Amino acid sequence: MNIGTLFGRYSILLAILLFAFFIIILFLTRTDSGKTIFGGFLIGKKISEKFAISTFASSMSLMLSSGLNLNLAFDLSSQVISNRTIKTKIEKAGRLIREDSVSFVEALDKVGLLSNTMTGLLGMGYRTGAADLTLKYIAEIYEDEYQNALMRKVSLIEPISILVITILIGSILTTVMFPLIRVLSAIG
Predict the structure, then answer these.
(1) For the residues of the chain, what is the DSSP string, one character each?
(2) How far apart, in Å, are the Cα atoms of 28 and each of 16, 40, 83?
(3) Which of 21, 76, 132, 171 could pair covalently with 64 via S-S, beta carbons 3.0-4.6 A apart?
(4) Residue 76: CB partners within 8 Å, gap ≥ 6?
(5) Can you say whether the dihedral through the CA atoms of 136, 58, 94, 40 is positive or negative?
(6) Domains, the chain
(7) Smallest Cα–Cα separation from 151: which of 53, 47, 77, 61?
(8) Are the C-beta atoms of 123 and 103 separated by less than 8 Å?
(9) What pTM, to 2 d.p., does this model score?
(10) Residues 171, 172, 175, 181, CA torsion sign
């Protein structure tokens, strides 16, 4: 079948599919559930979580170094997190601190917010009275990991875009060349 005829015959269907795709993308970028799905798909769940942990640790560090008490700093810092998974863990840790009288470090350890190494580091900083500096250091580590992972994702954009453009140009050339070859063969 001629590719030009195929595109002509199914152009309305293609337009409907593109419109549906646009509506789905609009839904994914405008609603909370869509942002969760789309953010995890686009950036990656682990990268998004590292960014949220970095934001939480940085905010806790800033508030503790400003002189706020731990509970108030914890409550305020949990409000700046948009990642649902991390926010849920932070809320569980907050309940453990308030209701079960668990220490800050133990609560973060029980909910699994930080890696074992970071939890141990925070525990040492908490016991020595340098929790704000330790949280700042942890925030910097997670931010570096987040930026490195994001740069790896961004570096994939160029090869993928070249592949897509190559496929588009190839399909356009075939739709133009096949009818032209047919006309030239009929003449010759």
Answers:
(1) --HHHHHHHTHHHHHHHHHHHHHHHHHHHHSHHHHHHHHHHHT-HHHHHHHHHHHHHHHHHHHHHTT--HHHHHHHHHTT---HHHHHHHHHHHHHHHHS---HHHHHHHHT-S-HHHHHHHHHHHHHT-HHHHHHHHHHHHHHHHHHHHHHHHTTHHHHHHHHHHHHHHHHHHHHHHHHHHHHHHH-
(2) 18, 11, 15
(3) 132
(4) 59, 63, 68
(5) negative
(6) 45-153 (1.20.81)
(7) 47
(8) no
(9) 0.69
(10) negative
Give the Å distances, CA to CA, from 11 to 3, 4, 6, 67, 125. 12, 10, 8, 64, 64
Token readout for 62 is 């800033």
Structure tokens at 80: 């700046």
pLDDT digits (tens, 9 = 90+) for 31-87: 766 666 665 555 678 888 899 999 999 999 999 999 888 888 888 888 888 888 899
Handedness of CA 44, 47, 48, 49 (dihedral sign): positive
Q: At CB < 8 A and 24+ separation, what contacts does 101-104 make?
A: 104/70, 104/74, 104/131
Residue 4 in tokens: 């030009």
- Provide the pLDDT for residue 30: 74
